[in-house]
Queue: 3 jobs
Job 1
Amino acid sequence: MRKKAVCIMSGGMDSTLSAYIMKERGYDIIALHFNYSQRTQKKELECFRDICEDLGVIKKYEIDLDFFKSIGASALTDSSIKVPTGGIEDGVPVTYVPFRNGIFLSIAAAVAEKHGAFKVSIGVVEEDSSGYPDCRENFIDSFQKSINLGTKDDTGISIERPLVKLKKEQIVSEAFELDVPLHLTWSCYQNDDIACGVCDSCRLRLKGFELAGGIDPLPYR
């Protein structure tokens, strides 16, 4: 029986690279995407589907989580809150979606248990998490223990976070090495047609390409 990994994939560069790393390690990929009423939901879903086709996944799930919009409290899900464009600031930014990764990982664990997959991959990166508490490695370690306490004894899920200690330029370089289709990925927090180039996520992506000596294939406004 071939080994399987459930890969949480947003359509962004980090989670896409994480999935390609798992494929490089010999895993069949079960792709998991969430529509949570984020500003760029349509574009992210389009990217996810295109990436899945290139990656050759064995199964994909598209999960709707509309309650994030009801909760609000994030510039990604509440249109009344402006997406910051002045550069990364200290503290937890308004683009943080409350406990998003914890919820994503819980659902990924359920999918993994169903398919007998012992690996769950998530593209968290501590350096560019912008203060997001659910991107910290100690949170992932703690949550892995909780998952295994709450699933069958023989489930034994390990949460892989291959990028967690990397800088953005290292992520870009590794994506080039693995021939990841970066032109299919999306990072912008604001727009779903042409990337804004000024939100935190665009700034980090552009800086990563610059420091890696590469050219970002996406157009920017």
Job 2
Amino acid sequence: MAMKKAEREALQREQLAAKKAFEQEITGGKYKFIAGVDEVGRGPLAGPVVAAAVVLPADFDILGVDDSKKLSEKKREQLFDLILEKAVCYGIAEKDNHVIDEVNILQATKLAMTEAIEKADAMLQEKLGEKIDFVLFDAMEIKAVDKPQVSLIKGDAKSVSIAAASILAKVTRDRQMVDYHEKYPYYGFDSNKGYGTKAHYAGLEEHGVTPIHRDSFLGSFYDRKNKNAK
């Protein structure tokens, strides 16, 4: 039986309250500017990894903010604009395929996250003369970020700030991959966002590698190509 609108909204209010309470509990309730940080794009064969950091106000009341993977594209797009409007500060950063190939995907992810935090910090400094004083990471630890921090497994399901960051990162990267589809139309980037789908591999077989492909992720493709060439 489908949930009624009022019931769904009541559930979302409960979920939002629980996620905000969790943040206060995990940080000890003594920090004012808590940044949630998340990334998207660690697994694709093409395109950048994108990270976002966001500090939400204590009275943040937007319902439905959740792990971006659980939301429809339409809902993510709606929430993206609302989060940017309501956020105390935010930062979005990316590292392209060349950086990923050079330093590996984990290090590239950490670089993007660190830059996103720095951007959010700069915005907060400009607006309020303050700095982020605690960072919540989704399953990540970055010792180079000189702030109190906690790494949370499945943090985007527990923390509203991490969930908001996941939406900012996801929408930013998805839009970019749709733009890349216009330039490289044979790989299905508009739908697969660079992940290794059947259509994507078919495009690689017929048209080869693009300038946005991650060479270090294409081992199986090159192996198959070399095998077929013998």
Job 3
Amino acid sequence: MRHLLDTRTLDRDTALRILDVAEDMSDTQSREIKKLPTLRGKTVVNLFFEDSTRTRISFEAAAKRLSADVINFAAKGSSVSKGESLKDTAQTLQAMGADAVVIRHPASGAPQTLATSGWISAGVVNAGDGTHEHPTQALLDAFTIRKRRFGAESRGRDLAGVRVVIVGDVLHSRVARSNVWLLSTLGAEVTLVAPPTLVPQNVSLWPARVLYDLDQALAEEPDAVMMLRIQLERMNAAYFPTEREYSRRWGLDARRAAALRGDSIVMHPGPMNRGLEISSEAADSPRSTVLEQVTNGVSVRMAVLYLLLAGERDDERGGDL
């Protein structure tokens, strides 16, 4: 695996390979000593042009647990804020000897540009670009669904027949986009639920169906309900009348959560707007996987970095990645 830029072009076998390696990584994290020597001598750069706490810390923890050296590069306070271009930044990282660059950028397509420009020889991981994609979030979500559904029997399993409902601000959500493509590749049936104003224009091209009524979608007894954060910072228009009205029609409140099938799970990529898209009762219930998703994120990102940087040695021995 040379780069991880999106899930739309990720094939089923590669996705399952990442999830299965993440299972191995997860097993190591229950040991007293969690650190592995796998990436000793490698340098991973976290290149974040947007604020992030969860994703950056998760990638940092993943790299350090594989014994890689980590450089955190925040655009604020750096030369980027003085006008340095992505090309100049990339060439600086190349000169530093970066082996992998984890990039989050407000412009959709920036990781693709970095990976294909020839400015840098490092492997590139997309940690979120604009409203385009966030592939490792989708991978950790799929990992979490698979783990809850199959437990110790997860390895090698896809998500055929699993019904997932994704609810909320689909228009601005790179998490929704990455999940739709990955979950459908793994065989899941995906339903999007949102106000008409928060549904993308090209959604007819996605492998998912669209509903506008949350209660109708929940009546079909999905296996997983994924609530999306309302991204008020990306909204420059009135996409719904009031927050109270949104919560009433599309929020997962205590009543809706209690009516879910017994083994259905509730997911959220975080950070949560409690009381808006999800109630505290739903977020803190036993069916909630919010904290598991954070834990699983480290294992999945360990798997991605391993396949990016150590997988090349497997290639030389005839491996498929």
